[in-house]
Amino acid sequence: MTFRDIVPIIVLITLLAFVPVFITANTVLNFLVFTLIIALAAQGWNILGGFGGQFSFGHAAFFGTGAYAAALLQVRLGINPWIAFAIGAVAGAAVGWAIGYLSFRSGLRGSYFALVTLAFAEVLRILANAAAFTGGAAGVLIKLDVRPENFQFESRGAFFWIALALVGAVLVLTRWIERSRFGAQLVAVRENEAAAKALGVDTLRVKLGAITLSGAVTAAAGCLYAQYFLYVDASIAYGTWISVEAILAPIVGGLGTVFGPLVGAVALHGLSEITKLAAGSVPGIDLMVFGGLLVAAVAFAPEGILGLLRRSAQAKGAARHA
Fold first, then answer.
1. Spatial separation of the C-alpha atoms in residues 143 and 316, rounded to whole Å
2. Terminal C-alpha separation, the chain
C-alpha cells in the first residue's frame, strides 16, 4: 500500500471533519454520530463477509461484547474509560477468534457458519440478560461525569470527531487489506476455498485473521455506542438490529469495497430519517425502508451504490469515445 492509496480517505475524512464547525444542531450531530457507529460496525462485517465471503448473521456478538466490556470495566472495576475502550476492542477480537476457531476448525461454511454466529450472539444475549454482574434485564448505566479524561464531552462534535477518526482508521485498515497479500488470500478463499488451499494458502489462518479483525472493529463500534449513550442492556448490545444493519450497509453501499459500508450506512439512515419526517411516527417505517433498499440493491444494483456509480461513469466514458 502506498500513500496514494490512502489519499482519497484522507481527503474524505478531512472534509467531513469540518461538519461540526458548520452544523451545531444536536439532533443532526446525534444522527451523524449514530451513523458513523453503524458504519464502523459495517466495516467490521465487511472485512469478514465482503472480502472473505464468510457471511455472519451474528455480529451482535462482537458489538455487544465491546459495549458490555467498556461499560462493566468502568462501573464494576473503576477502570478508566479510554483503557476500557481498548480492552473492549481486544475482547471483541478474542470472541471473534474463539467463534472462528470453533466454526472453521469444524469445517463450517456458508449458511451453517451464518447460523452458528447467530446462535452465539443469541446465547450471549441470554447470558447478559440473566447474569447479575451485567445488571440483568436492567442493563448497565454509566455514571455521567463530563470530562475529556472520562471519555465524556459537553459537545456532540467531540464524539463526532472521535467516531470519524475511528472510521478513518478502519478505512485505512480496509485499504491495506485490499492491497496486501493477506487481502489477496482472503479474496482467494472467498472465490474458491478448495483451490486456495490447493495453492498453499493456510485457509484456517486467513479466516481466523479476518474474523479476529472483524470482531475487534465491530467491538470498537459497541464500545463507542456504550460511551456515547452511557447505557447498555442485552437487547441493545446483542440485539439482532445491529447484526442486520452491519449486513445491510455493505450490501447497499458495495460489498467488498473500502467505502461501501460508509456509503451504505449514510444511505440507509439518511433515507430512514427522511421517511420518518415524511410519514410521521409510523411504527416500523425504518424497517420497511431497509427492506425496500435491500430488495432494490439485490435486484438492480448487486454491486451496491458504488458499483452502480462506477458502471454509470464507465458508460458515460464509453459514450464520449463512441
1. 55
2. 35
Range of the domain at 121: 3-321
Alpha helices (runs of H) in 24-155, residue ranges in sequence order: 26-45, 60-75, 81-105, 110-130
Is the separation of the CB atoms in 95 and 37 below 8 Å?
A: no
Q: Are 85 and 70 in contact (CB under 8 A)?
A: yes
Q: What are phi and psi of 147, to 5 degrees?
A: -150, 140
Summarised one tens digit per residue, pLDDT across range 184-196 is 999 999 999 999 9
What's the burial of 209, exposed, middle or buried (CB within 10 Å: 0-12/13-18/19+)? buried
What is the SS3 assignment for 231?
strand
- 24: Cβ contacts below 8 Å, ≥ 6 apart: 157
- Domain CATH code at residue 15: 1.10.3470
In angstroms, rounded to a whole number, what is the distance separating the alpha carbons of residues 304 and 114? 21
Number of compact structural domains in the chain:
1
88: nearest Cα among 112, 106, 63, 111: 63
- CA pair distance 44, 166, nearest whole angstrom: 12
The pLDDT value recorded for residue 45 is 96
Model confidence over 133-170: pLDDT tens digits? Answer: 998 989 999 999 899 999 999 888 999 999 999 999 99
CA distances from 268 to 7, 252, 275, 291 (A): 26, 8, 11, 10
